[in-house]
Specification:
Layout lengths: L1 E6 L3 H14 L4 E3 L12 E5 L14 E4 L5 H4 L10 E2 L4 H19 L2 H9 L15 E5 L3 H12 L3 E6 L9 E4 L4 H6 L3 E4 L13 H4 L6 E5 L8 H9 L3 E6 L12 H4 L3 E3 L9 H16 L15
Parallel strand pairs: 1-2, 1-3, 3-4, 4-5, 6-7, 6-9, 7-8, 9-10, 10-11, 11-12
Helix pairs in contact: 1-10, 3-5
Bound molecules: NADPH dihydro-nicotinamide-adenine-dinucleotide phosphate.
Amino acid sequence: MSILLAASLPPDERQRWAEALRAALPGESLLLDRHEADATAIDVAIVAQPPPGALAGLPRLRLVQSLWAGVEGLLADASLPAAVPLARMVDPQMNRAMAETALWAVLGLHRGGFEHARRQARAEWAPVAQERADEVGVAVLGLGQMGATVARRLADNGYRVTGWSLGPKALEGIECRHGLDALDAVLGANRVVVNLLPLTPATRGLFDARRLAQLPRGAGLVNLARGAHVVEADLLAALDAGALGHAVLDVFAVEPLPAGHAFWRHPRVTVWPHAAAQTDLRSAAAIAAANVRALREGRALAHLVDRVRGY
Ligand code: NDP
């Protein structure tokens, strides 16, 4: 099978992916450039932020396998062949990494980690009142691969967790709500919100001034999904007004976050450089390879994206 790796990655990272994919797919031909061979022979594209148009004009293409979990960038490329199945990265290793990041952020909000850091900067010796985890309500928005793993980890840690998804869900020990009509009530009842939604037309700009105002005063927002879920100016206004207590942000409207952006130096914002759950080359190469083998053997492909829903 002829496989194209189409990735906007630094050369050394691209090389590491190529080596890992070649090791995971012995006997297949992996191209790093579509001009290396006859483009009409390419069966599979393994992609990581491919440049727009990178997958146009590949008549034999039968699978696009993303190395990233989020696919909104791919779906925004009008030249992405409409009829070719698109699979995204689903890796239990990444889900676990996301759960670790979410737990760290929620513990920091609950136990005063971020507040104590502010007090330390002022050499102020003043403990934050200690609360029990079961006194802290945490809303997890999105109950898919990442969200469900995060919700379970937080519940295991004793938090009162409410999950929110598009369709109904049942997760043991977690109150599950669904649909836009339930969102304001979910936000109003929880002191911490962890966002793990995919970026779709329905979720873009979800956290605007009106929605942020539904949260209890002093609440924490943990955005681990996509920057465009949040109207950044509205978030800054809510933080400056003291309506929101703290935001932990891993993702931004523009990445890398521009040097002059207010988030960098805001005392109530913790910035991470889109590192909440990075694709783990060791496991992800094997997962991508398994889908290529499924295609070769005529078996069902895993983790296909529903292009109408956008995730
Ligand atoms: P999934 O597709 O597995 O889950 C998406 C969840 O969101 C589902 O529960 C779905 O509901 C819910 N959802 C989708 N649209 C809506 C809506 N309009 N209203 C309510 N709920 C909705 O995605 P993953 O868990 O794998 O990943 C989530 C996102 O995390 C990715 O799209 C990506 O943007 C981000 N991500 C961030 C990373 C980082 O390092 N910061 C790393 C990896 C991913 P239902 O179950 O009913 O379908």
